[in-house]
Each structure stands twice: as structure tokens, then as C-alpha cells.
Amino acid sequence: MTETLLLGRRAVREIARYPEATIPALFIPLFFLAVNIGQVSETFPDTTPFLNGQGYAAFQMPVSLMFAVATATSGLALVTEIDNGYFDKLLAAPIRRSSIIFGRLAADLVRGLMGSTVVLIAGLAFGVHMQSGVLGAVVLVVLAALFGVGYAGFGILVALRTRNVQATNTSFLLFFPLLFLTPNFVPFDRLTPVMEALARINPVSYVIVGLRSLVIDGWVWDQLAVCLGVIIALMALLTALSLRAIASYDRD
Amino acid sequence: MIEDGNPAVEVRSLRRTFKGGVEAVRDIDLGISRGEVFGFLGPNGAGKTTTVRMLCTLLPPTSGSARVAGIDVVADGAGVRRRIGVALQEIGLDPVQTGRELLELQCGLYGITGTDARARADELLELVGLSEAADRRTKTYSGGMKRRLDLASALVHSPEVLFLDEPTTGLDPASRLTVWDEVRRINATGTTVFLTTQYLEEADQLCDRVAIIDAGTIVAEGTPESLKAQMGHDVVRVELDGADAARVEAAFGGLEGLERVVTEADALAMYVEDGAGSIAEIVRRLDNAEIRVGAIAVSRPSLDDVFLRATGRRLEGAEEEQEEQEEEAA
Known about the structure:
By secondary structure, chain A is mainly alpha-helical. In chain A, 75% of the residues lie in helices and 0% in strands. Chain A has one domain. Chain A starts with a helix and ends in a 5-residue tail after the last helix. Chain B is of the alpha/beta class. In chain B, the strands form 3 sheets. Chain B has a 6-stranded mixed sheet with strand order 6-7-8-3-9-10, with helices on both faces. A 4-stranded antiparallel sheet of chain B has the order 2-1-4-5, with helices on one face. In chain B, strands 12-13-11-14 form a 4-stranded antiparallel sheet, covered by helices on one side. The longest helix of chain B has 16 residues, at 173-188. Chain B is elongated, with a radius of gyration of 23 Å.
């Protein structure tokens, strides 16, 4: 546990010392939020049924939250360490290899909490009202950050498997189809049949729906439960695959 | 510490074959006593780093066995890692951290925390002459400073066996001498040092014993002095400068005190009892045979001569030649 804390503290220190790695990653979600609201607000005024009396910003904010937390930053940091030899130094120390992964994920949690808080504040500035209240806002930020932790496992996995900076960097592109084959602009029932079918089999859709319910509808427990379930499953799957990748690293 | 009777490193028929059938290390045997500075000398790609990675538990052997500090590297990797320090060829530093933070973290990974970690980091920074730069991020360090910090980070837990993989590659001569001093100082405290190098002088100056590895096989082993003594007394090197090697060698048939002749790419190395005394006779014979050659030089045998005898080529200059070939190929 101590080694995980030490490695986590080091990774968190990186966030503070490399703001240039975090700040641009926040620009994209804020940009999408502003642009989407600007373009679609006239089409979907606050009288639109699925907005429940709110502006379109409320509908879009969960998507921006996910953009803010889904990064390949940890994967890139890891592959850089593989490249410069520090990773070998860690492997040669008498620590559990899993602590290297958990240390990175701890930083992702911190980064996710910070990023989603910034997007939430921006959303509030655009007039979003948290239907689930202050506690709902906290849950929203925590769930978004946990989704970021789960997603980070993908970048870490690619880093360990490919040991290649470019491959790890482009792994971020996978997020686009996952994010856009969802009810990100309109609810499921407003999508074309093909898009709806694809969105319904995309687990990310249910994360968006769950987060959105906190903003627009209040406490919708079944949607929240599914959202949490998807996030936990994502975290469990990608973390397990990352742990297996690091355990077998140079051991075959 | 290592129990009495246990060598610091004991390797039996160690082999590593990579995917695609590349045999990086082929059934090597090694025995390194406690307190030794042991040199693993060989060109790039000889199998030095692969051997070190197996001994440091970073790579499993394909077959054979290895014990470090009396512990089997496969059966108890964590036990080995607790007893060894490692500074690999790629300097393993986190550029985001300061020198002090890096050492304190490294202490933590070995179970040294709090004020003990801070004291140990201070002590090591002092030891490697980095106290003034301690609070700067390591990305601002020069190559020599990074190498010294890497060395310090391998020492946080006072390891029984220290592995240094090419510790001076890429360093300027002054930094190289500083690292040598550090290695001597570390060894003086009782730490066994296993270092790989492609520099003959480094092996000669630093090591109690040397093993020469080429193409995954150990081709010679012993103290630098004993290895050189096996070569004979003096070396007379005759640069052929286009002359026919067989004719030149034939001209020296029956030369008094001639112990061995080794043919190189464009030279003959003659190992003779009395180099200086043989020069006149060598020149006379070449003259009589009407053979024109380039320079003729007399020297004492070096580890490079040992390498030449064992492998048929020289180590000195091999890196430059390889780089030139790579540049030409590119």
C-alpha cells in the first residue's frame, strides 16, 4: 500500500508540474460545450420536453464531462517512462508491479476530479441547474472522475502492450466513436433506428444517461445504478487487463 | 549480508533465446565472489545487457540457473531485488522530480521512509556531489549528473550486489573518472559490483576480474593481468598497408622469441618475448623479402589483444566502425 501511495503522490505531483498536459485537455470539452450550446440552443429551447425546463447546456454537460476525464495522459506518462528507462528502475525495486498501475490510476482520479469540477463550474456559468442539488453535483463529479479512471486503463494497456508513444497517443481516438455513438445530442428515441441500435449497445450511452439524469431529472436510481455498473465494469475490466499486462511484462 | 560461502553471483548454463530464435546468451557460467568488482566486457549486442537483466530479475532465463546474493533469480525474484542495486544502460530517472524527491521516493520503495529517507537522500546526494543541485528537476541535469544520480538511486538500501550496465557510456572523460571513483568508493564499503562495459580501459582500471563475452558466449575470464599475461610478453603490430598477409607472416617464420601471430583486417599482431629487440630483425626480414608495410609499433598486450585472440577481431574502435557502417547503410 505504501508503494502505491508513494507512486500515486509522484504521479499527482506530475499534474501540478506539467499543467501543459492538463490544461489543453480541458480546452476541448469546454470548447464543445460552448459551441454545441451556441449552435443547437435555438433548435432545442428550454420548452423542449427532454430538457425538463432547462437550457441545452444541461443536456450537453455530461458529454463535456466525459471529454474532460477521458484522456491518455497516464498511458503517455507510462510509455515515456518505459522509453527513458525509469520503468525498468521501478520493476527492479522490490515492489508489487500492480502498485505502478494503481499509482497512475490515483493520479487519474485526482485529474478527473479537477477536470470535471472545472466543467461543472463552466456548466453552472452557462445556466445549468443541478436538479439533484449539491449532493448530486458531488456525485456527478465523482462518477465522471471514476469513468476517467476506468478509461485511463485503456491508455495504460496500450502503453504496456505496444511500448510505443505514437500508438498510445492515438489510442485516445477510440473514444470518439464510443462518445458519439450515444444519445449525446438527443435522447435515444430521437435517434435514427440504426443510430439508436448502435447507441443502445454502446455501454458509454448509459454513463451519459446516468450523469445527465443527475443534471436534468434529479435522482433517477435505476439510471444511476446502470451508470455506476458500467463504470465499475469498465474499471474492473481495463484495470484487470492492465494488471495482467504489467505482470507478464518481459516475463515470456 | 550474503551468508558465508555463498558467492555474490553464481550462474550455471544460463541461456536466453528471444522470439524469432535470437540466442542472446548461450549457456554461460559465472562465479563472482563477495567484494569483487567484476567486469563483463564485450561489444554491443554481445549479450551483456541481457545477462544483467536476467540477474536483476527483469528478464526470465530460457534455461539454466542464476543465484544472486545466494537467492535464485527465478524462484525468489523479490528476494533478489531487495538485495541488489541496479543502474541500467538507459539512465532511469523521472524528469519531473527533483534529485532529492527521486531519491526519497526510491528510499520509500525499499521501505525507508520519513526522516530516515530524508537523511539517506542527503547522504547520497553528498556522496555523488549533487547536494547543490538536489532541488532542481532532473531534466535540467547534465549527462554526468544524471548518471551519478542514477548511481545514487541504486544505493539507497545499501545493496549487497550492485549491477551497473555500461555506467560510463556516453560520458565525457572527466565524468567517466568521477563514476570510476564512485564505483571504487562503493566497492570499498563491501558492495560487490558487477559492471558491463565496452571500454577496455574501464575493465582494466576498475575490475578485479573480467569475463569477455562475444555473441552470447564467454570467451575468456580471469584477472586483467592474468589474461594479458597469457598473451605473451610484447606485441609488435605491423600494419599491412596493402601487403599480402600470408607473405608477411611467412617472412617471420622462425623469428626468435615469436610466440604467436594473429591476423587482423589490415595488420598482423606478433606476440614476441622481446618486442624492442625484435624490431631490427623484423625490418631486415621485410626488406629482404622486398615487402613494403605501413607502421610498425611495439606495445604490451592489452585486453584488446585478449579479445582479438578470442574472437579474431578487435574491440577497440569496433563501435566507431559499427556506427560508420550504419551511417553508410542509412
